[in-house]
Design brief:
The chain has two domains: about 240 residues, Type I PLP-dependent aspartate aminotransferase-like (Major domain) (Aspartate Aminotransferase, domain 2), CATH 3.40.640; about 120 residues, Aspartate Aminotransferase, domain 1, CATH 3.90.1150. Helix content is about 35%, strand content about 15%. The protein is built from 13 helices and twelve strands. The longest helix has 18 residues. It binds pyridoxal-5'-phosphate (PLP).
């Protein structure tokens, strides 16, 4: 764990690793079986034990979403409702299946899917809804499930931010239709690159298992016993999306030691929250930090007019910040001139600022971030008081 000197750069996020991950990778290298085998089988078993439902591991979180949608039989000509305020991975995973992502608005408090807005965008082609558990909280997920039930939609949860989070006392991924996690380098746990699909739907599980190995039927069973299918049959479009033993070895260690980083993330986010609530120009995103494992810490700066310069000044003082997210419906590839406006997204996407959050930060680091942010804002150069505010 790298010690931060007093005025060194405070990074927005980073991978946090111990010697145990390094030794695990060396173990795989020494055994000279790098592909999908025993480590992946064990990682899947450990995830199933943690989440309470079967997990199928794949190469990354985007692949998990892609395969989950494909396995639900959704593709060309279909539509999937998804919030515009998300990583472009959610949109790309939908369009990779041939389906069309339909951009929806978010609730201003939690930045999670506003199902009332989504309801207005339903068409006869709508087959699924993809709520994104923004920053680690799932918003009004039970209402989204009710909404999905009413219109007979599948729910594919983009739970990339929410590994370890709980909702109504249950682990995200442990209930509901289908949830997809990411284990990329900076997520709540990492396997370097990786992701998984979690569901109790046996048909989805079987389809994802085959589709991750180029559609070769039952190749997963062969590989888990150190073999391969030499007389393969392929009955569906597949992809080269399986996870390797190298990645799973990292993930296994991260999962076994998850308690400490999970607790650190919670405590640091709570510290930010305490220090920043009550400040007139700052609205922290509404999440219950005692039940989630926060992936990012986001504030809304009401009436923010020059985020670029604010970020530059903070960086000059050694603090990296981020923007989660640039709205996906404003990207050229997903632009749709007939799309009804997304008023909350359009305002909030200009006001959000992500502050550094990772388990290796100290309480002092958080204090330094808060003081730097408040001193930048106190000059009022970045805020327009008369600017349109959300009700
Ligand atoms: C990280 C992330 C993904 C994709 O995961 P990768 O492992 O990077 O492919 C999807 N959605 C959201 C919201 C994410 O943050």
């Amino acid at each position: 764990m790298a010690k931060e000197a007093k005025d060194s750069l405070i990074r927005l996020s980073k991978s946090c690793l111990s010697d145990a991950e390094k030794n695990a990778v060396i173990g795989v290298l020494n055994r000279e079986y790098l592909g999908m085998g025993d480590e992946v089988r064990r990682f899947e078993a450990a995830l199933e034990e943690f989440l309470g439902r079967p997990a199928v591991c794949v190469a990354n979180g985007t692949a998990a979403l892609h395969l989950a949608i494909q396995a639900a039989g959704i593709g060309q000509g279909d539509e999937v409702l998804v919030q515009s305020m998300t990583y472009v991975a959610s949109f790309q995973a939908i369009s990779a299946t041939g389906a069309r992502p339909v951009a929806c608005d978010v609730n201003p408090d939690s930045l999670t899917l506003d199902w009332r807005d989504a309801e207005k965008r339903i068409s006869p082609r709508t087959k699924a809804v993809m709520p994104v558990h923004y920053s680690g909280g799932a918003g009004a997920l039970d209402e989204i499930y009710e909404f999905a039930k009413k219109y007979d939609l599948r729910v594919i949860e983009d739970a990339a931010h929410a590994f370890g989070s709980e909702y109504n006392g249950k682990k995200i991924g442990g209930f509901g239709d289908t949830a997809c996690f990411s284990f990329d380098g900076i997520k709540n746990i990492t396997s370097g690159e990786g992701g998984c699909v979690v569901t109790s739907d046996q048909r989805i599980l079987e389809k994802v298992k085959d589709a991750r190995l180029l559609g070769v039927r039952r190749d997963t069973d062969a590989r888990f016993s150190g073999k391969r299918s030499w007389h393969p049959d392929v009955t569906a479009q597949g992809w080269r999306y399986h996870m390797s033993n190298l990645m799973a070895a990292i993930g296994l260690v991260q999962l076994a030691n998850f308690d400490r980083p999970a607790e650190r993330r919670r405590l640091l986010a709570q510290l930010y929250h305490r220090r920043l609530t009550g400040h007139s120009s700052i609205t922290p995103i509404l999440v219950d930090f005692s039940t989630i494992v926060p992936h990012i810490f986001v504030v809304r700066i009401n009436g923010l007019i020059d985020r670029g310069r604010l970020r530059k000044e903070m960086l000059e003082q050694g603090i990296e910040t981020g923007i989660h997210y640039f709205p996906s419906h404003e990207l050229s590839y997903y632009h749709d001139e007939n799309l009804d406006p997304l008023p909350v997204t359009e305002i909030l996407s200009q006001e959000v600022l992500t502050l550094p959050l990772h388990p290796d930060l100290s309480d002092k680091d958080i204090e330094r971030v808060v003081e730097t942010l408040l001193s930048c804002l106190s000059t009022n150069r970045f805020i327009s008081v008369g600017k349109t505010q959300l009700a």
